[in-house]
Structure formats: structure tokens, C-alpha cells
Specification:
By secondary structure, the chain is an alpha+beta fold. Helix content is about 35%, strand content about 25%.
């Protein structure tokens, strides 16, 4: 019995050893297979896989890349492409089936530009099944090559982002680029409306990157959001005209930078917006300074100077501190808390100086009088109601709020200087929004550049702002408009710009530019100009500014002609009927 049990035990041990040897052998075979496969991929096919992967940590499959379009509004009613997908092709060859590299070069070179030495070298790699030889090839050329039915030549479809308008409005649209994690909108509308525009980017992630970097948690998912195309309030022709005028003005006066906005003062719809220096979003990498990507109309902060004075006048009228018939004694200069405030020419206008003269002659001392009559607290409250120092809510990224701490100061001189645009710094979009309230019946509107979103399912979402805020009374709006029309008809360049059949309400601004360490430059100015028309039922408001123009001290010299050129264009283009 014991011998039988001993035999059974020995048999069990033998079977166990056999299983162990079998499992060990299987593991050895599997390891050898993995090593052979790794050697094949990493050594024999190394270059091929490197080419195909393009050494990307995260790559985008071009054929799957998709994204909604952005359109300008068009005068004919047909949208004008501003950002869209463009299909091109990469051409690749399979050297393993190519018999005569030079003959293939001679066949392809009439259709595409090829470096002969490089091509021959690639085509001679007999162990390499894939070599790219050209990219960004249009479909018509691809079709011509396909018709030749050349063995060993293949075509890979690419979808890429294209911007048909080039530099025109580039700071509005931004661009699409790789942020190191995924392809996404960078700057401008491409960034702000990323969730609407992005579709299936065909994103592929390296396994180890996914494992160790947890990319899925980093990349933003839009699977539960609706995607679509965007139609802007911006008119293609008005945008082109504004861009041209800004470029010409910058060239004439050699400004450091320049910007402009055309807006519907009643709705906040932006009709045109641009700034220089700028860039071409089709070649956004070819810039020396990335600051050109930034839209200074929404992100730039400036002391605007005298263009702010009509806001102070309107506040004084609206509060009841003065009437249009009020007068004061203008001494030319005033001492305020050891700070001396003077008119631009330091000349007194004497007793019985009218409220209209304050605007006609842009008198700083007159503005001090207005702030005194209101009281600093009332003045500060009005400027806050105008939205100065607050984001407007415009649908563009990177909006700055401004630097307006002087509107909380208990020192009177801080309010007095803020009344003529010194000591507070605001954005151009804040400025045009506040100034629009002077002509639109006293309402603070929300600026916006998107008119509607056309979703993939066919639904259309119209962007409508219904949260306008009444900041001054309608009768105040009419009174200040009347005063600003008088500025154009009689004071601005001595009435040379008066339009016989159109009432234009406008004002210039000239401000010394602050030094980085404090104080102001004696010879550097920011020039600004705003105006709306027809003055008593305005359809358009224009705001222009440029920094450090050379050769003229005052904005009336540098910006009057550009402003009225735009006015005449808008009257003609939109067929604005005369109002007088």
C-alpha cells in the first residue's frame, strides 16, 4: 500500500514539473516573440514608424480634423468666410516598389516642387515602405498625378485651418494651434468659442502619455455640447475699410500702435474692429513678438484724455448740477491740493465761460468746475455707471477691466483729473461702450461680435442683448449730442469738417502717455477720436486711437481725416439718409 502511494506521489510530482516546464517554455517563447517584434519595430522599421508618428507626443489625425467655420456678415446677405477648413494632400512614396527613382522624380516634378537630391535619397530606401515627399498639395494637382496611375505613389488627405482674410481682423479671429496637449483655438474667437467650433479633432494619444500624464483628464471634452458655425456682426466690407484706414494712418504718422472700432450704439453689435501691428493667422508662427496676437481693443489699457470730457459733461447735466446755460469764470489754471490743473494752452477764458466752450475748447479747468458742482461722490458714481473700470462682457477673450482706483479716492484732485481722462486707464471697448450711451438715449449696451450660431442640427441661435442699463436720461442724451454736434460744426478744425446734410456728434482726445516709472512723457501722446451719426438717431459710432504718433501734437490733426473718411464710407455703403 505504501509503495502504491509512493508511485502516485511521484507521478503527481512529474506532472507538476511537466506543467512548470511547459509554462516556462511558453513564457520564453512569448518573450522571444516580443523581443523579435520590438527589434523589428524599433530597429528595422524605426524610421518608418518615426515618420508616420512624426515624433508627436499627442498628434492629430489630419483626415479626421474638423471644426466649425466663422463668417463675416456680407452686404448681399451671403456670409463671407473668415475662418474655415481647407483640404490639401500629402504625397508619399513606397520605395520598396519603386524601380527607378530618377524616372519617378522626372514624372512628378512637373506637378510639384521637389528637391531632387532629397527625393532620390528617399526613393532609394528599399527597406522603407513609406516616405513623404510633398505636402499642402491642392486637389487639382493630386487629380492630375492620380490620372497617371503611378505604382508606389499614395495620397493622404489633410484638413487644415485657413483664414481667407489674412491679416484683416486677425486679432478678432485668433488662430488654431497646438497648446502642447491638443489642437485648439488660441486667442480671439477661435479660443472664446472653442466649445462651439470644435468637433472631432481625431486626437490620438500616445499610450504611455495617456498612462502617465492622464491626458483624458487634461483635454477638454465637448461631447455633451452642440457644435456649429458662427456668423459675426462684423461686415466684411466695413472691416476691410477700417483696416485700410488704420494701416494708412499708421504709415502717415508712424504710430507705435493703432486701433479702431465701429459699433451700432443701440445694440452693441460690432461692425468692424482692428488693430496694428497685427499678424497673418495662416502663418501665425512667423512673428517676432507674440504681443501682436493680443487684441488691444479689448485688452489694452490707456489713459484716454479729453475724449472722456463729454461723459463728465453729461453726468453734470444729468445730475442737475448744471444746465446748458450755466457759466463759470475760467482762470486758465487751478491749484488743487498742491496739484496744478491747466487748460492745454494755460490761457484763461474769463468770466461767463459757457458749458459749450468747455467742450469746444476742451478746457481742463472747466471740467474741474463740473466735478466741483456735482461733488466727487456723484461724479464717481456716474463714471462707474458708465462701466469704466469694468469688463463689458464682449464675447472675446482677454478683456481687461482697467485701472480706475481713482474713482474710489477721497482726494478731490483724483476725481477732477479723472474727469478729463487722466489718472484712470480704460480699454477702447469700455470707452466706446460708455460714449455710445451719449447718443443712444442714455443706455449702456453689451458689445458683441457674434450675430448668430448655426448648429449642426440646423438650429440657429440669435445673439440678442436685452440687459441694457439706463445710465443717463434720454433728454440728457439729446442735450449732450446737441453740444457735440456744435463741436464738429464750429470748433473742430474751425468747422472745416462740418457735413451739410448730416449731423455728426464728435470729440477728440489728446493725452500724455505715462512713463513706466511714473510721471508723463513730455513728447509722447495718445490720440483718440470718437463720433456718432446721425447725431439724434445714431446708426454708427466710431472710435479711433493711436499711440505715439510723430509729427503732430493734437488728435484733431492726425485722426480727423481718418474719422471722416470712415463716416463717408458708411454713409455711402449703408445708404444712410441725410438728417438735415
Amino acid at each position: 500500500m505504501q509503495d502504491r502511494e509512493k508511485v502516485i506521489t511521484q507521478n503527481q510530482e512529474m506532472r507538476s514539473n511537466d506543467r512548470a516546464h511547459l509554462l516556462y517554455s511558453l513564457w520564453v517563447i512569448l518573450a522571444v516573440i516580443i523581443l523579435i517584434r520590438a527589434f523589428y519595430i524599433q530597429v528595422i522599421q524605426h524610421k518608418s514608424y518615426i515618420t508616420k508618428a512624426d515624433a508627436q507626443y499627442i498628434s492629430v489625425v489630419p483626415t479626421n480634423f474638423d471644426r466649425g467655420s466663422i463668417f463675416f456678415s456680407g452686404s448681399s446677405g451671403s456670409p463671407v468666410p473668415f475662418a474655415q477648413l481647407e483640404t490639401t494632400y500629402r504625397i508619399a512614396i513606397d520605395p520598396t516598389v519603386i524601380k527607378d527613382p530618377e524616372e519617378l522624380y522626372n514624372t512628378l516634378s512637373p506637378f510639384i516642387t521637389l528637391d531632387k537630391t532629397s527625393f532620390i535619397e528617399k526613393a532609394s530606401k528599399k527597406s522603407d515602405p513609406y516616405e513623404e515627399v510633398a505636402k499642402n498639395i491642392p486637389l487639382d494637382i493630386v487629380n492630375k498625378i492620380k490620372s497617371l496611375k503611378i505604382m508606389g505613389v499614395s495620397f493622404v488627405k489633410d484638413n487644415k485651418r485657413a483664414y481667407p482674410q489674412g491679416t484683416n481682423g486677425a486679432q478678432i479671429v485668433g488662430f488654431v494651434g497646438n497648446d502642447g496637449i491638443r489642437i485648439k483655438g488660441q486667442y480671439g474667437l477661435e479660443r472664446y468659442y472653442e466649445d462651439v467650433l470644435t468637433r472631432d479633432n481625431g486626437q490620438t494619444v500616445n499610450f504611455f502619455a495617456e498612462l502617465f500624464a492622464d491626458i483624458d483628464k487634461t483635454a477638454i471634452s465637448n461631447t455633451d455640447k452642440q457644435q456649429g458655425d458662427i456668423v459675426l456682426t462684423i461686415d466684411a466690407e466695413a472691416q476691410r475699410e477700417l483696416s485700410g484706414v488704420l494701416a494708412e494712418t499708421k504709415k502717415v504718422w508712424n504710430s507705435d500702435s493703432i486701433g479702431g472700432i465701429i459699433m451700432d450704439p443701440k445694440t452693441g453689435a460690432i461692425i468692424a474692429m482692428d488693430g496694428l501691428p497685427s499678424f497673418d493667422p495662416n502663418n501665425f508662427g512667423n512673428v517676432d513678438d507674440s504681443n501682436v496676437y493680443i487684441n488691444k481693443n479689448v485688452s489694452g489699457v490707456y489713459e484716454m484724455g479729453s475724449i472722456i470730457k463729454p461723459l463728465t459733461m453729461a453726468a453734470a447735466l444729468d445730475s442737475g448740477a448744471i444746465t446748458e446755460d450755466t457759466t463759470y469764470t475760467d482762470l486758465g489754471c487751478r491749484e488743487l491740493n498742491t496739484y496744478k490743473v491747466c487748460n492745454f494752452d494755460k490761457q484763461p477764458r474769463g468770466p461767463d465761460t459757457s458749458m459749450q466752450t468747455i467742450l469746444d475748447k476742451s478746457l481742463n479747468v472747466g471740467i474741474v468746475f463740473l466735478v466741483e458742482k456735482m461733488g466727487a461722490k456723484t461724479f464717481q458714481d456716474y463714471f462707474k455707471k458708465y462701466g469704466l473700470g469694468q469688463e463689458t462682457g464682449i464675447d472675446l477673450p482677454g478683456e481687461a477691466s482697467g485701472l480706475t482706483k481713482n474713482l474710489d479716492s477721497k482726494v478731490f484732485v483724483d476725481s477732477a483729473t479723472a474727469g478729463f481722462g487722466q489718472g484712470i486707464a480704460v480699454t477702447p471697448i469700455q470707452t466706446i461702450r460708455a460714449l455710445a450711451s451719449l447718443g443712444n438715449g442714455g443706455k449702456l449696451v453689451t458689445p458683441h461680435v457674434v450675430d448668430s450660431i448655426i448648429y449642426q442640427n440646423g438650429d440657429v441661435k440669435k445673439i440678442v442683448s436685452d440687459d441694457d442699463i439706463q445710465v443717463i436720461k434720454p433728454e440728457t442724451s439729446e442735450a449732450i449730442s446737441r453740444m457735440l454736434v456744435h463741436v464738429v460744426d464750429t470748433a473742430l478744425q474751425n468747422g472745416a469738417d462740418k457735413m451739410e446734410h448730416y449731423s455728426i456728434a464728435a470729440k477728440t482726445g489728446t493725452a500724455q502717455m505715462p512713463k513706466p516709472g511714473g510721471g508723463y512723457y513730455e513728447d509722447r501722446y495718445l490720440h483718440s477720436f470718437f463720433g456718432y451719426f446721425p447725431a439724434y438717431d445714431p446708426k454708427y459710432i466710431i472710435f479711433l486711437f493711436h499711440t505715439y504718433p510723430k509729427g503732430a501734437q493734437y488728435a484733431s490733426a492726425t485722426l480727423s481725416d481718418p474719422f471722416f473718411k470712415l463716416v463717408k464710407f458708411l454713409i455711402s455703403y449703408y445708404e444712410v439718409p441725410p438728417d438735415r
